[in-house]
Amino acid sequence: MTTAAVIAGNAYDVALENFDSAADALELSPDIREMIKYPERILTVTVPVRMDDGHIHRFEAHRVQHSTVRGPAKGGIRFHPQVTLDEVKALATWMTWKCAVVNIPFGGGKGGVTCDPKHMSQGELEHMTRRYTSAILPLIGPQQDIPAPDVYTNPQTMAWIMDTYSMTKGYPIPGVVTGKPISLGGSLGRNEATGRGVFYTIQSACEHLHLTLKGATVVVQGFGNAGSIAAQLLHEAGAKVIAVSDSTGCVYNRNGLDIPGLMHLKALTGKVEGFPDSEAISPRELLTLPCDILVPAALENTIDGGNASGVTAKIVAEAANGPLTPAADRILERKGSFIIPDILCNAGGVTVSYFEWVQDEQHLFWEAQDVYNRLERVMKTAFRDVLKIHTERKVPMRIAANMLGVGRVAEAVQIRGIYP
């Protein structure tokens, strides 16, 4: 088995383990567990693409609908060489609970194509995206399953999906995807939504722990969309971001990094490596730096039983999906770290995706500040709901978040019953 398969398999195992912990705490019946634990639909497709050199390359791809009990399936599509079915199943499962935690009327879905977009031309990416869209066409639609951007996909990808879907229907259907360009019915504030949601939950955690955000030290692992926006907002709030990493390397300055300058370098060169007034450190050193707030914003399982003991952060804010393994969870809980679990912390993206879908369906669009205000209200309400379970039931924040999400889905399926 490849390393990628091991990682992906672990991610789905983690998703199931998290569900079982929440279901046990909620004392769910075996019947309800059977109805909501596993995906409703799984589609695996072959995507043949004529590459620029003329040869046909076959890509494997998936779309998983974990749950449509509370509404259409919702979830991103990622293009990554390590995409596997187990990874997509795990991410779809987390999306179900995430949507329920922030109480938006969607279920969980996810898609992925096993490819390396860094070594593909724009034309090859377009052909692959359109062929993949045509292959999953029976599953998607504004009332069925609504894709969005994820790892190595972006508004242009969503525009190709929207166009392909619309051409088969004969008229424009902007609501089939979210995260689109503004000119095609995208929402203001969508691009920074995940990072902004991370920021709002960190604000709430600091208030709960009586930790002053101004002057707090922050480490951000992963400087993509979510990590960079969270770093920028924390920097603007007066926090001191002392270290940042991306896939190329890690940069550190104990007096704080110039985040706007770092974002500019990343936009120009695609990497943080070599940033002036910083020193290079290893990925392991980054995670173990003394700090108040650690933001893991990379891929799954980056903090595990082997490195969690070195983490010293008071707050661990999971901007990525599943960055902590269950073993890491237990270690950090014993150490007294306050964990903001992924299905709460990074739910800003799907929340503003919901806002975009609503705007598309109503053909009425909001100002950016309206989006920010609504997002802050949703994120801070969800944080309070999870914190209430955490304090009243004396369970870890992750179990509390899963109890909230799983409980809402369980309630919906009990009320709906079984057809026929």
Report the sheet with the most strands, covering strand number, pairing sense and barrel closure. 7 strands, mixed
Indicate the low-confidence ranges by residue numbers.
1-9
Nearest-angstrom radius of gyration? 20 Å
The CATH superfamily title of the domain at 193-340: NAD(P)-binding Rossmann-like Domain
Shape: globular
Order of helices and strands: HHEEEHEHEHHEHEEHEHEEHEHHHH
CATH architecture of the domain at 193-340: 3-Layer(aba) Sandwich
Q: State the end-to-end distance.
A: 41 Å
CATH fold-level name of the domain at 193-340: Rossmann fold
Average of pLDDT: 94
Kindly estimate the percentage of residues that lie in beta strands according to DSSP. 15-25%
CATH class descriptor name of the domain at 193-340 = Alpha Beta
The number of distinct β-strands equals 12
Instruction: Give the fraction of residues assigned to helices.
Output: 40-55%
Counting helices, strands and paired strands, the structural category is alpha/beta
Determine the oligomeric state from the structure.
single chain
Order of neighbouring strands in the sheet with most strands: 9-8-7-6-10-11-12
Helices, by number, come to 14
Summarize the structure.
This protein has helices at about 5-25, 30-35, 85-100, 120-135, 155-170, 195-210, 225-235, 260-270, 285-290, 325-335, 340-345, 350-360, 370-395, 395-415; strands at about 40-50, 55-65, 75-80, 105-115, 145-150, 215-220, 240-245, 250, 280, 295, 315, 340.
